[in-house]
TrEMBL record:
Keywords: ATP-binding, Nucleotide-binding, Transport. It holds the Pfam family ABC_tran. PROSITE patterns: ABC_TRANSPORTER_1, ABC_TRANSPORTER_2. Residues 2-218 form the ABC transporter domain. The keyword Transport applies. GO terms for molecular function: ATP binding; ATP hydrolysis activity. This is ABC-type multidrug transport system, ATPase component. InterPro entries: AAA+_ATPase, ABC_transporter-like_ATP-bd, ABC_transporter-like_CS, ABC_Transporter_VariousFunc, P-loop_NTPase. The lineage of its organism: Bacteria, Bacillati, Actinomycetota, Actinomycetes, Pseudonocardiales. It comes from the Bacteria.
Length: 263
């Protein structure tokens, strides 16, 4: 469907924000890209969506794309329904009857006529999601799509991702939270400092800690470390769980959760 080979990206004469990225997305798969803010995830998706060009390397494949950026541009006078109809015509979508049921399913506060500039971040995200999925793309690209959505819409978004895969299309999404990525993706890649690596199939454990300190990302066996408020969430290789817990307790951390990561 789409393949990236040796893709790199830098802006002007600055440092590369993506380095030698190789990625193949096959039909009927959901690919999750896990990484912290600033790791290069959004740049990767912009290149895949065709809104930015790679500095080095090549992108092969021309699937029909639906794209939700990390910041949906909602500061417009146009209403949600009018905006989606406008985008549908741009994409050559003749059947506009899908728009209102989709907005109803997403529970857009204010209804289809609500001006975009009056919407909260979460509701603007719903309109952005609607414009991405309504064209029934071959490749649905979603940048941190669960961020800002209410709990009820989290479930709807999961259903839309599953429905896209069920009809043979593919989804690529990013998130900084390991649990979200593992809950929805069947292929997981890790993004760190502009480099993309496939996650090992070896089972991992989720450890949630509360306390003070840093350096968990460099701890042997820690695949990923994310700070969420007062907590640090670790994704740890099974063989290193005891050693990580021992260090946490020795350093005065409180262990709040230990559980297998979703397969």
């Amino acid at each position: 469907m789409i393949r990236l080979a040796g893709v790199g990206k830098r802006y002007g004469r600055g440092d590369f924000v993506l380095r030698d990225v190789d990625l193949t997305v096959e039909p009927g798969h959901v690919v999750g890209v896990l990484g912290s803010n600033g790791s290069g995830k959004s740049t990767l998706l912009r290149i895949m969506a065709g809104v930015s060009h790679a500095t080095t390397g090549t992108v092969h494949g021309t699937p029909r794309i639906g794209y939700l950026p990390d910041r949906f541009p909602a500061g417009q006078r146009m209403g949600a329904r009018a905006y989606l109809r406008h985008m549908a015509r741009i994409h050559g979508l003749a059947d506009l009857s899908v728009i209102d049921p989709l907005l109803e399913r997403l529970a857009l506060v204010g209804g289809p006529a609500a001006p975009l500039r009056t919407l909260s971040k979460g509701n603007a995200q719903k309109v952005g999601l609607a414009q991405a999925v309504m064209v029934r793309p071959d490749l649905l690209i979603l940048d941190e799509p669960w961020s800002g959505l209410d709990v009820g819409t989290h479930t709807i978004l999961g259903e839309l991702v599953a429905e896209t895969r069920a009809r043979g299309a593919s989804v690529v999404f990013t998130d900084h939270r390991p649990q979200v990525v593992h809950d929805h993706a069947d292929v997981v890649h890790l993004m760190h400092e502009g480099r993309l690596t496939a996650e090992s199939a070896e089972p991992t454990t989720r450890i949630v800690l509360r306390g003070g300190g840093t350096g968990w990302a460099d701890e042997p066996g820690v695949r990923h470390a994310v700070t969420e408020g007062a907590h640090v969430v670790l994704t740890v290789e099974l063989a290193r769980v005891d050693a990580v817990l021992r260090r946490a307790l020795d350093d005065g951390w409180s262990v709040r959760e230990v559980a297998p990561c979703s397969p």
